[in-house]
Every structure is written in C-alpha cells, then in structure tokens.
Amino acid sequence: MSDLAVESTDERVKNVSLISRLMKRPELGALAGLALVTIFFAFTADPKMFSLAGFLNFMTPASQLGILAIGAALLMIGGEFDLSVGSMVAFTGLIFGAAMVTFELPLYAAIIVTFMVAAAMGAVNGQIVIRTGLPSFIVTLAFLFILRGLSLVGLKAATGGSTQLRGVREKVEGSWIADFFSGEAFTPLFYWLAENGLVDTFKSGKPKVDGIPVEIIWFTLLAGVATWILLRSRFGSWIFASGGDSSAASNSGVPVRRVKMYLFMFTACCAALVAILTVMDAGSTDARRGFQKEFEAIIAAVIGGSLLTGGYGSAIGAFFGSIIFGMVLIGLSYTNIDQDWYLVFLGSMLLLAVLFNNMIRKRVTGER
Amino acid sequence: MSTPIVEMKNIEKHFGSVIALAGVSFSVMPGEVHCLLGDNGAGKSTFIKTMSGVHKPSTGEIFVDGKKQAFDSPRDAMNAGIATVHQDLAMIPLMSITRNFWLGHEPTKNFGPLKYYDLKKANAVTMEEMAKMGIRLREPDQAVGTLSGGERQTVAIARAVYFGAKVLILDEPTSALGVRQTSNVLATMDKVRKKGVGVVFISHNVRHAMAVGDRFTVLNRGKTLGTAKKGEITAEELQDLMAGGQELASLEASLGGTV
After folding, report:
1. Which range, A170-184, A321-335, B219-233, is most confident?
2. Do A3 and B93 touch (CB under 8 A)?
3. Each residue's pLDDT tens digit in chain B (259 positions)?
4. Does residue A8 lie in a domain region?
5. Whether the predicted model's global pTM rises above the 0.90 cut
6. What does this protein do (chain A) (predicted)?
7. CB contact under 8 A, A361 and B106
8. Residue A368 lies inside a defined structural domain of this protein
9. A231/chain B closest Cα distance in angstroms
10. Could you tell me the pLDDT band of residue A10, with boundaries at 50, 70 and 90?
11. Which architecture does CATH list for B6-94+164-233?
12. Which residues of A touch B94 (CB under 8 A)?
C-alpha cells in the first residue's frame, strides 16, 4: 500500500498552517504569559534583572518550584492531584537531614534512603487513591497535614525540641556526589570566559557569576526528560489516556493503575529532589520547608496548560509556568512595586490560565 | 458452507431468578454481516456480553473455529479474535487519532531506556487504514474529539480490524447517528465484510439492518425467533417479530404509516 500517496493526494493537508498548529499546543498560554511578563519587566525593572546574574537570580527559585511543577503536571495529565508535595518536601528534608546528621550515613546512602522513602510515600498515596476510588484531592489533602505534622514531630525528636536540624553542610563537605546536588556547575567554564573577557568580572578578575546553580540544570534536564516521555514514549501515551478517560484506557489494554501509581511515586521523588537540593544549599532543614509549594506547583502546571480534569497538558508548559513565577517573585524587587503584589498576581494568573485552557481545549476537540 | 468463526449453541443466562437468555443459538460466518435485532430489554446486551467474555453463560456452548471454548474474561475473547466496538467506543477525545488507534498496542523502536514510540510508523499506518475505510484524515495527529460520531465509529472499527479481529461485534453503531453518517458506517461494515471478517450488527433499526445484513436473527424476551437469510424475509416481517406482532400492527394502523 502506498501510504505516502494517501498523504500527498489529500488536498486538505495544506489548510493546516503553522499558526493553527501552534494554537493547539498546550504550552501556548505559558509562552504568551512569559512574553507578557518579560515585556512588563523590560519596561519597569532595573536592566540588571536581565543580566546573566539577574537571570540566574530568578531562575533559581523558578527551578526549585519547577521541579515540583513538572511532577505535578505529569500527575495532573494522568488525572490525579497531589496536594501533599509541599509537605513531602519538608518530610523528605527531615529524612535526608536525619540520615546525614543523626544516623551519620554517607551522602550517597542518605540520598538513596530519601528517594526510597519518598517513592514509598508516593506509593501509599497512589494505592489509597486507586484502591478506594476516593478523589486524590481528599486523600492527598490528608497527607498534606499528616506529613507536615510528622516533619514537626520528627524534627523535634531528632534535635531534642527544635524545629530546625542543622549541621548538614559539615557532613556533606568533601563528597564528590555533593557537587551534583549543591553549588554551581560549569565553574571552570565561567572562569575561562572571564579570563577571555566574555563575561562581567569583579576587579580581582573573578567572574561575577561563577557557574550555573545545579538546580537550574536539574530543572532543565527534568523538563526535557518529562517532555520526551510524554510525547515520544509509549508510557506517555498511557499517561494521557489514563487521565483522559480511565475506563476507555483500561478497555484498550492500558495498565491504568500502574501508570497512576508510578506518577504518584514520581511526584514524590520530585519533592525529594527539591528537598535534597534546598537542604544541601541551606545546610539545615526545618519544618516550614516547601510550605504551600503544592499550590504553586499546581498553578504553574495549570499556567503551563494542564487541564484540571486531566488528559491534557505539557511538561514544557510547566517549565515556562515556573519561570513566570520566578520572574515575578524576584522581578518585583528590581522595580518600585510593592513585593506583596506577588500574591495578587498569582491568583489572577491562575484564573486567566484556566479560562485560556478551556478555550484551547475547545479548539483542540473542535467543540462547537 | 465453511465452519462458522463463532457459533453459540443454546445459550442460557440467568441472573438470580431472572432468565435473561433462554436458549439462544447464533453463528457468524466469515465475511458476513449477521444482524441481531431486538427491542429494548430483549436480551441483546446480555447476549453480546456473553459472546465477548464479560458474562459466562449459565448453560450452552461456544465454539470458535469449530473448537469448544470457554471465555473467562473479555481478554480471552479478544485473544480468540472477537472484538467488540461498544457504544461508548473506548476512545479518548483529547488524544490524537493515531494515539487512540494504537492505544495499548503502541509500536516501539529501540530497546531499554531508549525505547520510543514509533510515531512515524503509527501515523502512516493510521492514515492508510483510515483511507481504506474511506476516511481521508487531514492530519493523523488531530484529536478524536474533532471527528464526527460516524468517523469515530470508523476509527474504532478500523482499529479492531487492524489488530486482528475475526469477529467484530458492533453494539448499535448507528443508533446515535444522522442519515449520512449512518450510511458511512454501513459502508464501512461492508468493507470489513469483504476482508473476510464476520460482523455482528446489533440494532433495533430494521432499515439499517436490511441495508447491509446477510442474515437476520431476532431476539425477543431472551429467545431467538429463528434466523432468516437475506431475501427470505421482509422489513415488515422483521419489525413484527421484534415487537411481538399484533399490538404494533394495530398501533401502526392508528398512526397511518410504518413505525
């Protein structure tokens, strides 16, 4: 059979322009939002914001949120929510801190233990949702409180009454694995660039920016891998199917339960990664870590084009959504605008994004 | 004549004290459209669920290619080549036609962590299979939600046939469609029949059945009232059999036309 002949003889193919193709991408809203926010700050903010140092300045919080948002986006596409990711950051931070400081495990072992605990907690969330058929909203809301409470109790037990566990930095020092989870990457490159006068330097000749913070690298990598999984792997198709219509998916032979289970575990592991990155950065962990991050992560995913009802969305969208967050959070300090406008912005952006997503969805499905 | 692909003999199905099927015999030959007609509550759904492995018959035998078989699950029936296209179609509107077509059977390339979904092949095959069914897709990655009801039905049928269905059970495929879309679906059934697939066409619309059917079986109150070949029976006779005759005839007289 001549499959190519079929395509080339269909005259209607030409009607699909690049623009209308782009209009159907879920990340369009986030890209438009990013452009708007960039234009806004280009006019109002100190130009330093868009220097290399300024860029890394807002990318760092964007990355910490973004790692969570990518997990949240995948889970939302799969048709479920996880409201416990913020508390999960605190809880896995405690596990990591306690493993390092209290149990004095080597760094690699502490990291493995942290991820294993996170995956197990994600599995518990997933199993309860799948087996009881309860909305994941309720189940993970329960875990939002349970994990936050456990973090407090655990921290007090580990420190003898304090809610902050210090001393992680001292334990980490000297381990080569630490370089993957803290500090900056590509430092030699930046020194080389400074020597050749390609980046801004201090008077001493040291570059003003001596590397890219590792969380930005993790964030970018994760966005790439998640996008590849969603769009180019069989599992990605299963994620969309599970969220789009779980009974239709299982009738077609998709292992819906397993897919959702893995997604809950992945989301929890994203929280664990953020915990490890931020705890190593700060050198300590505390009970407020990750506070309200679950909402910000979900908002970033929604801004990125994920539908609250599942079955549609994008990891790249969540990537841009998180950058918008970082830009506004940090960008406002480069302007004369009161920082607390951040919250107003957050709410309005969510509302706009949901409206926009509904419009896009209608376009995609051709609802008339 | 050759052996039927599927033959069901004296199927009975009881749900507690309710007798849903009271001795139904039915067979499907390769390359025929066998219409199963019946009014609501006649037992059509119970019967096709038995055929597709959802229910186990209380008594009676099922033969596939002349060999006796018992289906424990829909999976078993599917493996035996019996595919069912349900009214709800098992399709995901927000996903592309290609992704829906291949759902659960995705072709992959490479192996290990590098294994990826071979979308190029998937798209090409989908375009080709849909073209064979007479539907020219604008693009294989358009969402199923953009298709009309008849086109969705055709995607579901093309998918079942491509993945090796020998018997295709279509559960009221025309009930929710307009005139034009109905004729498209009937044309698709004709194409499928020509490939040698046996089609079981469930309907309560006699005219749709007469348009494509090779054989007709009427189900009434859990019993078959016999099977007729094309040309042996008129639409009016089928209608009477379905409705139990007399009352409908008198209603028809008072309405002054065909119901």
Report:
1. A321-335
2. no
3. 578 898 988 888 888 888 888 888 899 999 999 999 888 778 888 888 888 888 888 888 999 988 888 888 877 888 888 888 877 667 888 899 999 999 888 888 888 778 889 989 999 999 998 888 888 887 888 888 888 888 888 888 888 889 888 999 998 888 878 888 888 888 888 988 998 899 999 988 888 888 889 999 988 888 887 788 888 888 888 877 777 655 555 656 666 655 5
4. no
5. no
6. Part of the binding-protein-dependent transport system for D-xylose. Probably responsible for the translocation of the substrate across the membrane.
7. no
8. no
9. 8
10. very low
11. 3-Layer(aba) Sandwich (3.40)
12. 240, 244, 307, 311-312, 361, 364-365
A233 is a domain residue: yes
Instruction: Give the CATH number for residue A162.
Output: 1.10.3470
ipTM of the complex: 0.82
Q: What secondary structure letter does DSSP report for A15?
A: G
Residue boundaries of the structural domains of chain B:
6-94+164-233
Q: How many domains does chain A have?
A: 1
- Per DSSP, the residues of A167-222 read -HHHHHTT-TTHHHHSSEE-HHHHHHHHHTT-S-B-TTS-BSS-SEEHHHHHHHHH
Q: Which residues, numbered 111 to 130 in chain B, qualify as contacts with chain A under a Cβ-Cβ cut-off of 8 Å?
A: 115-117, 119, 124-125, 127-128
Which domain covers residue A77, as residue numbers? 30-358
Residue A339 in domain: yes
In angstroms, the CA A365 to CA B18 distance is: 43
